[in-house]
Amino acid sequence: MDADARASAEAAEKQWDDTSAPSVDMSELGGPFEGPEKLLELWFAPNVDALPECQRAMAERGVRLGGRLGLRRVPKSTWEGMLDLVKCKILSVETSAEVDAYLLSESSMFVYPHKLILKTCGTTTLLFGLDRLLRIAKATLFDEEALSLQASSVSSTMIANAVAGDADCKILGGCVRHCFYSRKSFMFPEKQQGPHRDWMLETRFLDQYFDHGAAYTVGKMNGNHWLLYMAQGVDMEAETEAKKEAELELQSTSAPAIARRSLPDTDLTLEILMTELSPKACEPFFFDAKDSTNIESAHKLGRDVSAKLGLSSLFADTQLDAFAFEPCGYSANALVSATPHHSAGYWTVHVTPEEASSYASFETNVHLDCDGAIQDAHTHVTNVPELVSRVVDIFRPGNFTLTLFISMDHADSAAQLRSLELPHYTKSDRILYEFEGYELLFLSFHRRMTLN
C-alpha cells in the first residue's frame, strides 16, 4: 500500500472506530471466517452511450465510440491502489466485450464502462475504498483532461493527481446516478472494522456522500435479515416513463436495433445467500496444499470443482474464472453470453465451507424468465426457478434467503417468483418492497430435514 493510501485508510479507521468498543482487534484473532459479503453497486450513467465521452463523440463527430470506454480505461494498478484500502487483492481478471471481471482474494469486482460492482467478504473494509473509488470515477468519466484522451487507458498519473486533490464528499457523490449498498446480517459482527461494526454507522458513512439516501432492514431482526441502502441521483419515475415511451417508439418504427443501446440498461440482481451447508456439500471445497502449490494450480483446481458440481454448466457459452483456496474455500466469476433464453451478464459464487460458519453465495445479473417449471433434464437453466433449484441442490443449505432486485419496468416479469416452492424446503418469509423505480422480492427458506 502506498503512503497516501495508508494515510487515508488510517484516517478513515480512526474516524469510524467506536471508542467504546474493546481495544483488541478482533480481526487478528483466530476463529471462523465471515462469509456474508458487503455489496456495493454504483451507476454513473444509465448506459454506455450516455457517458460524456460517448455523447461528445456523437455530438462533435457523429460517431459512436467502441472498444474500452469509461471505467474500463482505468489501469489495473489504479484499482489495486483502491483495493488496498479495502484490504483485498486482485487474483485474476476475465474480460468480455462489455465488462471486466476481477476475482479478488475476498470475493469479486465487475467493472463496466458506466457502472461498477464491488463485493467483499471477511473483515474487509469496503466502504473505506469508496472515496478513492469516486475520485477515480470522477477523474475518468467527467474531467475534461480524461475526456480529451483517445487512448484505451487513462493515464495512472492523471488519476493519481485527481485522487490527491481536494473534493467535497457531496461533490464526489454527485457524480453517482444510483448507489446500492447491501449485505446479509453478519455472523460475527464483533470482528468487523470501522463503520462495518454497525449498520447505522455504515448508513452514516454513506450519507456523507449521498443526499436523500434511504436505509432498510428486510426480514427478521432477530434472525436472518438483509440490509439495503439506496441513493438515487435521478428522478426514477420520470426515467421509467421515458424509457417506456422510447421503447414503444422503437417498436413502432424501423429504427435499427443498435438504437436500443441508447435506452437505460435493465437493472436486475438475483442473490441466493445460503448458510448451514450440508457436510457432504462442503467436502469438495476442502483442498490439499499439494494440489494447489501456485496460483495456476489453484485456478485449475477451481475449474475442476466447478465442472464436477455443475456450476460451469449453468449457462451456455460461459467464460469461467475459478479459484480454490488452501486449505478451504472457493470463489468463481463467470461471464455469460446472451442466448434466446437469457441476456448476457455475469454470475459469481463464493464458498466458506467451515462447519461452524458454512456459507455460500450465488449472485447474477443475467435476465432469465421468472416463470417456468423446474426441469432437471435441461443441460443449461432456462428460467429463474430452475436456476434457484440447481444452485440450492449443489449446496443443500439448512437456511437460505433469495433477493431479487429489479428495475420497475421489468418488475411484472418477476411476479411468478413470489410463489416459488422448492422440494424439502419451507418458505418462512415473503416480503415485497416497492422503491422509486425498483422492486425488491425477499424470500426466506429453511430445510424441513437435516442432510449429511
Task: Note the topology.
Elements: H1 3-15, E1 38-43, H2 52-61, H3 76-86, E2 90-95, E3 100-104, E4 107-111, E5 115-120, H4 130-141, H5 144-147, H6 156-164, H7 169-173, E6 178-184, H8 199-207, E7 214-219, E8 225-232, H9 236-251, E9 268-277, H10 279-282, H11 295-309, E10 318-324, E11 330-336, E12 345-352, E13 359-364, H12 384-395, E14 397-407, E15 425-435, E16 438-447
Antiparallel strand pairs: 1-5, 1-6, 2-3, 3-4, 4-5, 6-8, 7-8, 9-13, 9-14, 10-11, 11-12, 12-13, 14-16, 15-16
Enzyme class: lyase
Organism: Malassezia globosa (strain ATCC MYA-4612 / CBS 7966)
Region (Disordered): 1-24
Structure description:
Helix 1 (3-15) runs parallel beside helix 3 (76-86) and helix 4 crosses helix 6 (156-164). The chain is built from twelve helices and 16 strands. It has 452 residues and is α+β, with helices and mostly antiparallel strands. The chain is globular and about 65 Å long. Helices cover 27% and strands 26% of the residues. It has helices spanning 3-15, 52-61, 76-86, 130-141, 144-147, 156-164, 169-173, 199-207, 236-251, 279-282, 295-309, 384-395; strands spanning 38-43, 90-95, 100-104, 107-111, 115-120, 178-184, 214-219, 225-232, 268-277, 318-324, 330-336, 345-352, 359-364, 397-407, 425-435, 438-447. Mean pLDDT is 85; it is low at 16-29 and 253-263. A hairpin with a 4-residue loop joins strand 2 and strand 3 (100-104). The strands form two sheets. It has an eight-stranded antiparallel β-sheet with strand order 2-3-4-5-1-6-8-7, with helices on one face. Strands 10-11-12-13-9-14-16-15 form an eight-stranded antiparallel β-sheet.
